[in-house]
């Protein structure tokens, strides 16, 4: 830590240690707490052993630090073992250490946990035992060294390295696969952690740029896990800002809530820098403060290790150092508890077991959900291959036919066939209604006035005026066609062919909406029946194909019959006819009056209405007096039996009276015919296509005949399926 950095750091009060102690909920007496802590760690270890950590974040401690920060020495002191030592980076792959206190003799079991293949690609997790259990701690270093060689040479059988392979050149420099140690004994603390390769500062000394990125990615993979407690090692002999591990830890834990800091090699701190490290230990630098605080440990140097210093001796020497070396020895009691490997190990164990206890309900919930999904997937697996193909075919046909029958007859759900088709049927009806003849009771070029929807159509659904002028027919055009059609008819007789031609022009426009409705229903049926076939036969791919072919042929037959029926209905409408003469005449009279009402120059409807209301004896208005005067004049001329309404006959005759009659007849007939056609087409599609699938030559009967080859010229369904076709999909 440079002196230049110190002024930039905001100091916290000595009472603001901000440690946020985390402990299990049921902490009682020391013995009960130890048992609870051990139980929590056993749960986590058990979950790790199953490989579930690939899918669920299991609480863990990851030891990270830059190269040569004393990580290996720290772990040796905690575990009570000796790790392999060589020049350069010693840890070439993650090393998992699961420690548990036990009254049984000390024991260490080494396994390989393989997450990737020799190409580095993820595979299903495998745990491979690596040798027998070790009962002598001095043998662990050699076993770990051999296990690392096995990890770094994935193309070679792991057992080869138990007795040889010392001269083997590693295939890879680093690996994601793990060496796993399970250590138990009376002098072992309850703790679990994973030791990660040290972060490399720069290429060289056997390390490449690719190695730097690989190690950084490996450390990142652990550090980004929200359930990972980061045990960060920082050496006091190197400037703090030059140690990249802290920056990496801060990236994934910016608030410092799940990081435990460890200052190593306090005896090698440059003279004059000790106070800055003490300030960091006290958690007084706001930018570097950690919720779980900082600790400091002192491990044997390389000379002491070469001389064979024991674990007990190392701890005694560590204790003596912190008790005598300044400024460490002058720390208050609460900070003295942050010195030494034992205090650090206890703190790590407390934090880890507390996090496990906190996360356990969520883990249990996640596992239960995964089990539920797995049970669902297991339930979807195919059953044993059938030993009775014919019986199986009949069973599948029965299920399929039952589902189809229910579907075409109608189901109450929103996704039912009839519910799906109904909006399209309404669209069809609206499209037919919009083909109503657009007669204009005025000459072309005269926009007319007051042309509205007739009041007598107000009881119709969605009454509307035709859109635009594309199909408008003006009264002068109707009259011209009427006059052109006259051949040898008597005067005032217009050939029916004129009325018929206008009706046929409307009928021609009905084919497109009818075809669209038919195509839509056919598409819906094909899609839904394909779903039924797949649902019942998906586990028999050859059977599914054969049944789909038979079903498609049957639907095609019904579709062709339906098309013929629709063409018959269209042909039927080409010749105007109706026995509903009262309905037709009623509409014709209404349209006659409506068209005439828009030609007031020839049909003074208001005048006629006033004449009908005239009271010869009591009326006192000027209009009534004028009418009485005219009626008296007729009497004076000896002209009798004249009614007031007869006075309207003196108005000039409408030269387009014949056209109005044609227009009213065509429009009245449309009201009769369109409603008939709007019913007949959906009914024909439903009768011939939908219900036709289960009537007469029902699909069920067709499939059963296909099964035994009862249809002439057809190979039996059972014989068309290869023997392996009865093997369910997914079966071996």
Shape: elongated
| Biggest sheet features | 9 strands, mixed
CATH architecture of the domain at 394-465 and 506-596 and 663-717: Up-down Bundle
- Report the top-level CATH class of the domain at 394-465 and 506-596 and 663-717: Mainly Alpha
How many E strands?
A: 11
| CATH topology descriptor of the domain at 394-465 and 506-596 and 663-717 | Four Helix Bundle (Hemerythrin (Met), subunit A)
SSE diagram, text form:
Elements: H1 30-50, E1 60-65, H2 71-79, E2 95-101, E3 107-116, E4 122-129, H3 140-152, E5 178-185, E6 191-195, H4 209-223, E7 228-235, H5 244-252, E8 259-264, H6 274-281, E9 294-296, H7 302-306, H8 311-324, H9 333-336, H10 341-379, H11 389-409, H12 417-433, E10 438-440, E11 472-474, H13 475-485, H14 496-508, H15 511-537, H16 541-573, H17 581-597, H18 605-613, H19 622-636, H20 657-690, H21 699-708
Parallel strand pairs: 1-6, 1-7, 2-5, 7-8, 8-9, 10-11
Antiparallel strand pairs: 2-6, 3-4, 3-5
Helix pairs in contact: 1-10, 11-15, 11-21, 12-15, 12-20, 13-20, 14-20, 15-16, 15-20, 16-20, 16-21, 17-20
Protein name: Dynamin-type G domain-containing protein
InterPro entries: Dynamin, Dynamin_GTPase, Dynamin_N, Dynamin_stalk, G_DYNAMIN_dom, P-loop_NTPase
GO molecular function: GTP binding; GTPase activity; microtubule binding
